Amino acid sequence: MKYVPKEIKEEVNVTAVHPLVNFGYLLGTVTLAGVILYASLGFIAARLATRIGPETEEKIGNTLIAGLISDPESASDDRIIYLTALAESLTPQDPSLPPLKIHILQPETASEDDLANSENAFAIAGGHIVFTQGLLEAVESENELAFVLAHEMGHLHNRDSLKAMGRSLVFLMLVSVLGQGQSGGARVIPATINVANLSYSRSQESAADRYAIALIVQHYDHGGGSLGFFERMQQQELDLGALNTVTEWQSTHPLTRARISRIKQIAAAQNWKMQGELTPLPEGISCVDFVCED
Amino acid sequence: MEFIIFIALLAIGFFAGSYAEQKHYLEIKQRERKSLHVPLMNFGAKQELPYAHEAQMFVGSVVIANDYFKTFAATLHNLVGGRVVVYESLLDRGRREAVLRMKEEAIAWGASQVVNVRFETSNIGGQETTRTPAMVEVIVYGTGIR
């Protein structure tokens, strides 16, 4: 048999599909499955978490707060009494929820200095609301402070912190199961779930804002000045035009600009006054026990 | 930030990887046409080997690295299954390049044909614990006769 050289033109060993098409299909399948799993399991976990009784919630909350503030029980600060009274005047304690406990995060006692100096407030399961020293230094009227307080009370009212705990449990489980042995999978799944989660978190923030503005209007008869804190924050925020939506996807809170306009829309729809006299803050709100040394 | 780095690595992997692959395929096809006149033959144990004055073994080996994009696409394949398209071209390139290296050496020696060609593949790097992108080595060897 004679050998006749013949060039083989067809590529039988390589599937004729563009790598990007194949990649798109892969990524689509994996993210879709991840998001569906996370959404359904997360929903169940959040529902289950809200069934936790107030005593258990308090226990969980106490462990969480202990990691943040050293010795939260012994902290005595007249400002806490003032803030608790303010919270009580906004709305009476809901008996089905753990009693409200207010903390002030001081740079000296907090485990993280940066957090204490930032202008922030957050709610922790078990009825804890934490104000940072930085926030108390930045507020300019009681209305502003009350809005922040009411917003965090809204989170506690909606039991958002517990829901978040339930969902993060599912999140960790999914990451460890799906990400097992996969360097790539371990990266992409958290990222997509995170985006899905952030949108959920933003809707919780908006719900807390709605709750807060209703309390504020009820208490002060107007919503004036309550958004002053956000308006100052907005000035620091970059306006990226069309890119704003993109940055919003990556954040836990709605953009301050969008937030203000949403709150104003709610107020307009309810015919709430958004102007009025401001209630001044007590003297020395930025210092422990209202006593400033210099 | 971590995500941006990851996307950038993917993009680098994809563009650099596909550029290298296209260039490699063009070169492979050209060299294959040039070395087409020397046949590769395999004979069974009881078959008579072609008559030769001289015989020598030739080895061609090549190591081809995976790129970031391929690694990532393959890990996704680990979740859903199916043909790992991105690795098919990688191994195909490795085999053809190794054959070409062996053949070109044999041709330079003056072989009329290369008989009993064997392929071996082994994995280099890509340890289980560190999950570094793997590299594949393809060795082809055969007996050149003249």
From TrEMBL, chain A:
GO cellular component: membrane
Gene Ontology MF terms in the entry: metal ion binding; metalloendopeptidase activity
PANTHER family on file: METALLOENDOPEPTIDASE OMA1, METALLOENDOPEPTIDASE OMA1, MITOCHONDRIAL
Organism expressing this protein natively: Vasconcelosia minhoensis LEGE 07310
Record-given protein name: M48 family metallopeptidase
Top-level division of the source organism's lineage: Bacteria
Annotated transmembrane regions: 23-46
Co-factor binding details: Binds 1 zinc ion per subunit.
Keywords: Hydrolase, Membrane, Metal-binding, Metalloprotease, Protease, Transmembrane, Transmembrane helix, Zinc
From TrEMBL, chain B:
InterPro entries listed in its UniProt record: UPF0145_dom_sf, UPF0145_YbjQ-like
Signal peptide as annotated in the record: none
Domain of life: Bacteria
Family statement drawn from the similarity comment of this UniProt entry: Belongs to the UPF0145 family.
PANTHER family noted in UniProt: UPF0145 PROTEIN SCO3412, UPF0145 PROTEIN YBJQ
Protein name according to UniProt: Heavy metal-binding domain-containing protein
Organism of provenance: Vasconcelosia minhoensis LEGE 07310
